[in-house]
Amino acid sequence: MISNESKKIEELANKKGITSKTFKDINFLLAKFKYHTNNFEKIYPEFIRTHEEIGKEKVIDLLKQTETITGAKPGTFNNAQRKMQVNIHSQIIHPLFFELDILMIDARRIVEYFIKFIADLSDEKPPEKIHSFFEGLENKSKKQSIFIKKLVKQDKDYVESLKREWKNWINELSDYRSKSIHKSVERMMDCTVTVYWNQGSNIENPDKTEMSSIKLHETDIVIYINNLWKNMSRFIMDGSNFIIKNF
Predict the structure, then answer these.
(1) Distance CA 153, CA 159 (A)
(2) pLDDT score recorded for residue 180
(3) C-alpha distances in angstroms, 111 versus 115, 133, 134?
(4) Is pLDDT at 139 greater than 80 in this prediction?
(5) 219 pairs with which residues across the strands?
(6) Among the four residues 6, 43, 44, 151, which has the most C-beta atoms within 10 Å?
């Protein structure tokens, strides 16, 4: 667990079987998240190369078709264009998205297990759904459990930090989980490939091919995953400090 006081938290966890198990589950998921982050980073360059090649072939094919249809001299449109863009769709069956799916789902599970860990330490019933838990923090009396009321009484500053984390990134994980299960087709991602030729270059051999970055929630997907780790680290650090202060 990410904390300078992890030993103390482990000692607290080991006092009860239920907290000990949850503590181990959290650490397992954190190690798993790091493992799949490394896999994601290894696969990403190959993903880019593959889609640049797909885009290049599509551009060359379009130019050849245009020359055939118009009867233009070979290379005419190639030299006229010098640069051409195409949009391509990336299917979610690519291994990169398997890794993304695991990372997003496990990040949400880490949040759920950590909240459960605090509830177990408090001898209170853990929330059944993470979404309902965070809604309950917003002073919605019908959704406020005994556990939430105890949290508010123990440390209002920590409750406020949980609210901020929910708005800033945890809510996105909840939304992704729903789409992952029920709306996977909507998670196809678009990108743009740009192909360049120098003057006189053969249509079959472009001088440069570039692909736009894949984005998730309007952020470059690699940066998003890195930020996700940073967000989780802060979330666990704040929670660890709360535990040390109150148990």
Answers:
(1) 9
(2) 62
(3) 6, 11, 11
(4) no
(5) 216
(6) 151
Q: Which of 61, 22, 42 is nearest to 204 (CA)?
A: 61
Measure the CA–CA gap between 220 and 69, rounded to whole angstroms.
39
Bridge-based pairing of strands 219-220 and 208-211 is: unpaired
Structure tokens at 136: 């309950």
Angstrom distance (rounded) from CA 25 to CA 126: 15
Number of Cβ within 10 Å of residue 236's Cβ equals 21
Q: What is the DSSP code string of 120-134?
A: HHTTSPPPS-HHHHH
DSSP 196: E
With H, G, I as helix, E, B as strand and everything else as coil, classify residue 216.
strand
Question: Which alpha helices (H) appear in 71-94, and where do they start and end?
Answer: 76-81
Q: How far apart are CA 239 and CA 235, in angstroms?
A: 6
Of 203 and 35, the one with more pLDDT: 35
**pLDDT (average), residues 133-146:** 79
